Amino acid sequence: MKQPLETFPGLPYAANEISAYMLGVETIYILSLKNGQMPRFQPDDVESFVIWLKAHKIREVKLSGQ
Fold it and tell me: Which one of 14, 25, 30, 49 has the largest count of C-beta atoms within 10 Å of its C-beta?
């Protein structure tokens, strides 16, 4: 089976730098980096981005009620 790429197009962070993510507003994702930063990212292809996150086993954080 083919390994997923370590980086996602347009995202300036590698998968191993991201500890968690959550959907912010509409298609803007908030990333929790291992260095403590919390940048926002709006992917051009949301479906592919979510597949990439899951392939790298990056934890999704959901607010209660979501």
Answer: 49
